[in-house]
Amino acid sequence: MRTPRIDIDIRKIAFNTKQLKKIYGAKGIQIIGVTKLVQGNPVIASVLVDNGIEILADSRIENIIRMIKGGVQAEYLLLRTPSLSQVEEIVTYANISLNSELSILRELSKYALIRRITHKVILMLELGDLREGIMPLDIDSTVKEVLDLKGIDFIGIGSNFACYGGISPDIDKMNELSSIAIRLEKKFKITLTIISGGNSANYNWFKSSKSIGRINNLRLGESIFLGRESLCREKIPTLFTDAFTLVAEIIETKIKPSKPYGKVYKNANGQIEKFKDMGLINRGILAIGRQDVPVLGIIPRENILILGASSDHIVIDNTKSNLKVGDTIEFSLRYMALLRALNSSYITKNIII
Ligand SMILES: *Cc1c(COP(=O)(O)O)cnc(C)c1O
Q1: Whose CA is closest to atom 7 on ligand 1?
Q2: Does the predicted TM-score (pTM) go above 0.85?
Q3: By alpha-carbon position, which residue is closest to atom 12 of ligand 1?
Q4: Fold topology of 244-352
Q5: Catalytic: which of 18, 27, 36, 110?
Q6: pLDDT of 201-220, one tens digit each?
């Protein structure tokens, strides 16, 4: 079979989805399935839906359109707060969006009215991670105005953690979000149906807290696909962490020196590298490179060592595994490496059903 490729084990993704629904459902938390890691691949997205996910979320409207055109039946939420220039498209394809800017909410309202539909919005609160969100001091005035916008249905509030600032969604942060929800409902005499506490980083909070307050929703990508919480990147018990496998192929193996010889200049990455002289070693070359995947984000499942990489090659120490030309090596991938690899048009995506 062709390489390089990513083998995608659908049964493992299905299992993870079911388990996470059970784990979080036990305390009344609904899961939104986040598809941006797989670019809204319709086959994979339908696995989430078939296993009980009702809302699919993606940060790119292109991915949402891909799922809709692929026939995936779900409600769609746009995760990245809308760009002013894409508002019309967003209102057309996304049922719900996360928001933090009044000027954009006004535009969403305008196009919702033109299209005679209702667009649902969740207002994001800034609680310390410092990416998107309205400062808590400004939330009341924003809500007041949003409630007056025609074609807009204000359905909830949310927060996001562990993305920009690496801030933990701990009990204090979740209690803060909860109490803002309770206060807003009382003050404006409304019912918020979604209080979305965060993402895959919220697992430890969920596990350790006796009371989850008003939090009733999380948006999960990494946990579903890689079986991990994203704060410490720990495996979640019972989940599969190996649904995705990168397979690369050996195109050269030779006994060569371990230290480059000749006059030293900068290499393809613009660096002067230091090499340890370990004498002659068995070196291998893989037909995959930095243009496909960040080399630090892949972990070999065989006993080899990555020595270095350029745009189209990865050089390995092949001494221990003694692989031959034409042999393949399997790698696990961390989140960003998987995201990049799935985006490479040179890597075949092999969905195993
Ligand atoms: C990507 C994203 C998520 C999902 O994050 P995971 O760590 O993959 O669970 C949730 N919310 C927002 C706003 C996101 O951008």
Answers
A1: 200
A2: yes
A3: 79
A4: Elongation Factor Tu (Ef-tu); domain 3 (2.40.30)
A5: 36
A6: 999 999 999 999 999 999 99
Question: Ligand 1 pocket check: which of 56, 77, 125, 199 to mutate, most ligand atoms within 8 Å of Cβ?
Answer: 199
Mean pLDDT within 211-232: 97
The answer to whether residue 12 is catalytic is: no
Tell me, letter by letter, the H, E, C secondary structure of the chain: CCCCEEEEEHHHHHHHHHHHHHHHHCCCCEEEEECHHHCCCHHHHHHHHHCCCCEEEECCHHHHHHHHHCCCCCEEEECCCCCHHHHHHHHHHCCEEEECCHHHHHHHHHHHHHCCCCEEEEEEECCCCCCCCECHHHHHHHHHHHHCCCCEEEEEEECCCCCCCCCCCCHHHHHHHHHHHHHHHHHHCCCCCEEEEECHHHHHHHHHCCCCCCCCEEEECHHHHHCECCCCCCECCCCCCCCEEEEEEEEEEEEEECCCCCCCCCCCCCCCCCCCCCCEEEEEEECCCCCCCCHHHEEECCCCEEEEECCCCEEEECCCCCCCCCCEEEEEECHHHHHHHHHCCCCEEEEEC
* Domain map (residue ranges) of the chain: 9-226, 244-352
Which residue's CA is the nearest one to ligand 1's atom 6?
221
Question: Into which CATH architecture does domain 9-226 fall?
Answer: Alpha-Beta Barrel (3.20)
